[in-house]
Amino acid sequence: MPKKPVKTSIKSIVRAPQQDRSRQTVEAILESAVQILETEGLDGFKVAALAERSGYGVGTLYQYFENIDAVMMALVELESERQRQTLLAEFSDAAARGKKQTTRDLVDMMVGAFSQRRAAHRAIIEWVLSRRDVRMIEGRNTFLGQMLASVSLRTQGLTMQRLLNPTEMFVLSRAFLGALRTAIWNDDPDTTSPQFVQAMTDLVDGYMFMLAQREHRELHPSEHLKVQQ
Question: Which residue has the higher pLDDT, 126 or 1?
């Protein structure tokens, strides 16, 4: 197998305009990969199929990806990056228009993102679940966790004097993504229903409400003692 000459991360390739040709090549390969996963699933996801669909030779594929698992990992990274950029853009646009985004707005965005190309998402989720090393990386989605936390607190009119600690971040992001991905993986038709979106919103708001209440009790124990008396 030819060695990969350029050890540039997928995120930096996609972001850096000075690597425009590499970025276009990688994006074309990854788009072809998504198309294969959408129509053929993991069983049909082979190097030869990817070369044929993308129009690039096998040698070119190996120039950017060491093996087929590296392509899958790139899809996981790219999807996470696209979600991050989408959330930032949506919230920046809302802020510019003076519109306050709520927890439900954020949940709607995430559900909408996962509901597109569901078959491909199911295949990616299945691959992630089969890889313990990838699950560990995915388990601490600090950006999403902090975004969920800050938006939820603001939506409920609550405050906290600190950021979430690593354990809280893990629980919140894992619970949210775990529920969403399991629903997509099981091809649950209720995923796009208002009830599902509300349940996911309640999950986030309920968790953050309890954390905020606990912190308030710890910072102001005398107030809670008076209430009990």
Answer: 126
For the domain 1-75, what is the CATH code? 1.10.10.60
| 3 φ, ψ (degrees, to nearest 5) | -80, 150
Q: Nearest 5°: phi and psi at 4?
A: -80, 115
pLDDT, tens only, 12-33: 444 444 467 888 889 899 999 9
DSSP 191: G
Q: Specify the pTM.
A: 0.75
Question: In this structure, are residues 212 and 158 in contact, taking their beta carbons and an 8 Å threshold?
Answer: yes
Report domain extents, the chain. Answer: 1-75, 100-229
Q: Which position has the token pair 């679940």? A: 129
Q: What is the chain's Cα-based Rg?
A: 21
Q: How far apart are CA 87 and CA 49, in angstroms?
A: 33
Closest CA to 75 of 118, 119, 115, 121: 121
Based on the number of CB atoms within 10 Å of its own CB, is 8 exposed (0-12), middle (13-18) or buried (19 or more)? middle
Angle CA 175–34–91, to nearest 5: 50
Q: How far apart are the first and last CA of the chain?
A: 74
- The crossing angle, in degrees rounded to 10, of helices 166-185 and 118-129 is 130
The answer to whether the CB of 140 falls within 8 A of the CB of 170 is: yes
